[in-house]
Amino acid sequence: QKEVEQDPGPLSVPEGAIVSLNCTYSNSAFQYFMWYRQYSRKGPELLMYTYSSGNKEDGRFTAQVDKSSKYISLFIRDSQPSDSATYLCAMTLIQGAQKLVFGQGTRLTINP
Amino acid sequence: NAGVTQTPKFQVLKTGQSMTLQCAQDMNHEYMSWYRQDPGMGLRLIHYSVGAGITDQGEVPNGYNVSRSTTEDFPLRLLSAAPSQTSVYFCASSYGTGSNGYTFGSGTRLTVV
Q1: What is the pLDDT of residues B76-93, one digit of tens each?
Q2: Distance, in angstroms, between B105 CA and closest chain A CA?
Q3: Residues of A with Cβ-Cβ distance to B31 under 8 angstroms
Q4: CB contact, 8 Å: B89 with chain A?
Q5: Taking the CB of residue B66, how many other CB atoms lie within 10 A of it?
Q6: pLDDT, tens only, B1-54
Q7: Which residues of A touch B99 (CB under 8 A)?
Q8: What is the per-residue pLDDT for A53?
Q9: What contacts A39, CB < 8 A, 6 or more positions away?
Q10: A102-111, B43-52, B100-109 — which is least confidently predicted?
Q11: Which of B24, B52, B27 is nearest to B108 (CA)?
Q12: Which residues have C-beta within 8 Å of that of residue B18, sequence separation ≥ 6?
């Protein structure tokens, strides 16, 4: 069983829809949670970063962490065609924070 | 400010050949890592470094070597290429503990035939 599970999709939604992307994990020691966005043939870029449980909002993006359920989510409001990309969740321990563990990535397409 | 620069962008190797993937960053980051990305597998950590002269193995280190003689550079060496090493390789760097996320390079697409 992978430490971090992410539905690979693909996920296709109409422009303006609310998108929910999710990851589950098995290691309760993970403390730092990240979402990366990766456009085709590009490197991942950091989208959101959260520490421990709770919500964090940045414009149209909201990251949510539920450590009791070992579940993290990324919500995209008012989705745009430019949001079409692969979204990767990643997490790490407090110590050894240089070692990121990634989910498989979800490919998202926003249709105009 | 170039960020993380990886060369080459594309490479085709024959089985058994060796090569070095280059990675350089100009952000004075202490932490650097190499990941490989395969379909359906996400990114997997190959080797990482917490500073010049210090390296350690990640999840999939076999067949790869690294060294870190300067803060800026972190090359990845394939000792004897195998078809299983066909992948996209990403180098990443981070400031401090790395918990605030890494900056990734644009990747090297490697095919071993």
Answers
A1: 999 999 999 999 999 999
A2: 6
A3: 98
A4: no
A5: 23
A6: 679 999 999 999 999 999 999 999 999 999 999 999 998 888 999 999 989 999
A7: 31-32, 51, 92, 94, 97
A8: 84
A9: A85, A86
A10: B100-109
A11: B24
A12: B77, B78, B79, B80, B81
Q: How many CB atoms lie within 10 A of CB A109?
A: 14
Given B43, B48, B106, which is nearest A98 (Cβ)?
A: B48
Q: Is the peptide bond before A112 cis (omega within 30 degrees of 0)?
A: no
Q: Which two tokens stand for residue B65?
A: 């070597």
pLDDT of residue B41: 82
CA distance B98 to chain A (A): 5
**Chains A and B: how many Cβ contacts under 8 Å?**
64
Rounded CA-CA distance B34/B47 in Å is 6
In tens, the pLDDT along A9-68 reads: 899 999 999 999 999 999 998 988 999 999 999 999 999 988 878 899 999 999 999 999
Q: Are B98 and A93 in contact (CB under 8 A)?
A: no
| CA-to-CA dists, residue B37 to A43, B45, B80, B91, angstroms | 10, 9, 19, 11
pLDDT, residue A99, reads 82
Q: Which residue has the tokens 């992410």?
A: A6
Lowest mean pLDDT among A72-81, A85-94, A95-104: A95-104
Would an 8 Å CB–CB cutoff place A41 in contact with chain B?
A: yes
